[in-house]
UniProtKB/TrEMBL annotation:
<dbReference type="Pfam" id="PF04542">
    <property type="entry name" value="Sigma70_r2"/>
</dbReference>
<dbReference type="Pfam" id="PF08281">
    <property type="entry name" value="Sigma70_r4_2"/>
</dbReference>
<keyword id="KW-0238">DNA-binding</keyword>
<feature type="domain" description="RNA polymerase sigma factor 70 region 4 type 2">
    <location>
        <begin position="141"/>
        <end position="192"/>
    </location>
</feature>
<dbReference type="InterPro" id="IPR000838">
    <property type="entry name" value="RNA_pol_sigma70_ECF_CS"/>
</dbReference>
<dbReference type="InterPro" id="IPR013324">
    <property type="entry name" value="RNA_pol_sigma_r3/r4-like"/>
</dbReference>
<comment type="similarity">
    <text>Belongs to the sigma-70 factor family. ECF subfamily.</text>
</comment>
<protein>
    <recommendedName>
        <fullName>RNA polymerase sigma factor</fullName>
    </recommendedName>
</protein>
<keyword id="KW-0805">Transcription regulation</keyword>
<dbReference type="InterPro" id="IPR013325">
    <property type="entry name" value="RNA_pol_sigma_r2"/>
</dbReference>
<dbReference type="GO" id="GO:0003677">
    <property type="term" value="F:DNA binding"/>
</dbReference>
<dbReference type="InterPro" id="IPR007627">
    <property type="entry name" value="RNA_pol_sigma70_r2"/>
</dbReference>
<dbReference type="InterPro" id="IPR036388">
    <property type="entry name" value="WH-like_DNA-bd_sf"/>
</dbReference>
<feature type="domain" description="RNA polymerase sigma-70 region 2">
    <location>
        <begin position="42"/>
        <end position="108"/>
    </location>
</feature>
<keyword id="KW-0731">Sigma factor</keyword>
<dbReference type="InterPro" id="IPR013249">
    <property type="entry name" value="RNA_pol_sigma70_r4_t2"/>
</dbReference>
<dbReference type="GO" id="GO:0016987">
    <property type="term" value="F:sigma factor activity"/>
</dbReference>
Amino acid sequence: MKPDSHQLPGNAIDAQSSQSPERVAGLIHHVAQKDRQAFALLYQATAPKLLGTVLRILRDRAWADDVIQDTYLKIWQRAEQFQYGKSSPITWLVSIARNSAIDELRKHPAGRTTNSDELDEMPGRQSTAQEQLEDQRAANKLNHCIDQLEKDRQDMVRLAYLNGWSREELASQFEQPVNTIKTWLHRALKQIKRCLES
């Protein structure tokens, strides 16, 4: 059944308006009422942007695709929590995607593990079991120390040093001046260093 203008905001065929804040907010409102058609339209209108956000964090397309699936499941479950006056709909959706990606990064700081077939096909430079164990211990210790930081500082450090985000990108993401970001990162690194040395 095609949506009429009372069911969904805008024209489903109009690609230009499909990402307007009003339309996306309207779709989220319908998704909160468990409207599957609105959910499909919301996915169509916003998935490229959310995938871009996740891909920038994880830098692995297959992994990002998995996280996007998880993100839209969360959107389906939490749509009723969205409040149009508090934030723009795209900002709300992007924050769910970003947090899902950062949670994945926290669970797998060295990246997602490949399966044994892929490992067999990799060229010779195999590390020894001892080296792998030491690398894992170092990663676990670093992760533990990062987890001691405030939540937004944790995310900032992971994006900056594990994913190579620039200070400008971080400033935009966290809505802070570049100099503030530099100061926060400097303090966070000192705290991590103290933790690693303890």
